[in-house]
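Entry 14. Ran structure prediction on the chain below.
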Amino acid sequence: MTPREELDALARRVCNWGRWGKDDQLGTVNLVTPEARRRGAACVLEGRAFTLGLNLSESEGIQAGLIPGRVNPSRTMTQVNTPLSPDPEWICASEDVVVMALQCATHWDALAHVSYRGVIYNGFPASSVGAFGAQVCGIDRIGSLVTRGILLDVARARGVEVLDPGYGITPEDLTASCEHAGVVVEPGDVVLVRTGQMVHLALDARPGDQRDRPGEQASATPGDPPKRSRSRRNLIDYAYPAPGLTMACASWFHERDVAAVATDTLSLEVLPCEHENLYLPVHVLHLVEMGMSQGQNWYLDELAKDCASDGRYSFLLDATPLAFTNALGSPLNPVAVK
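Output, structure tokens:
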């Protein structure tokens, strides 16, 4: 079987076109039912919250110019202590404006983000995306996305801090990570896959983080892999080559009716791709065939450390995108509550 035939066979196996009607624009988000939300709410025991989004600033941006148009956030002041009344000593305001690519940091891809053979999800024509954005399958269609989240810490399950560059995550890895976490993925769950790749960003501890700061003694959590130095920030090492999902994982997600999947990498799928003549095939399978939104650049390290500490890898997840009308993606700051 050629690589293209392999992709076509997988596409037929996981295709959700028409499953929720010929006019559906939500795809697998349809699987987030009240039952799935209640299952997520039942995971909240102590009320500990973890933010999973990267900070948004130009200096902390992760884009290195590899993807045309993906610029790091640039924030400018538009008002600085400007009087709002005739009395300048009364009420004054300060405001700012930001310019950024919607997919430059932690984000969801809209189903219209990629097309394949002239179509997007559910058979809508690729021409439905034009100068004014996505007329169908835009990110604004999702609305709220609150459900149970499951962390599959592939790196920790394999006993390493970060997967090797270019390591292709297999369905067997996902199953082994479920067994390591003691969880069963159910319909409507959002699955977060941790590779450890953000070690290359050398992130400083953020407000509320308990992670060790660079240069400090690493605290030992039972079962933690050996620590690697975080002193060197390298955006190229973060971007490429990178560990990520393989094509076969699409069947694993489809069989379990996963609502969405996100990773702590720039591309979500393994880079270099599995076959040199099939570029970003996982994007095709997830977004076009399955109608499954996917997220990239999710900060999972602190959540993973907590999950390893208490042995609970499920949580309530609020991953609602910003409602940019007709947009092809949305930045967000997801929150996991345990």
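The domain at 3-54+103-213+230-337 is CATH 3.50.30.50 (Glucose Oxidase; domain 1). Will compare against last week's run tomorrow.
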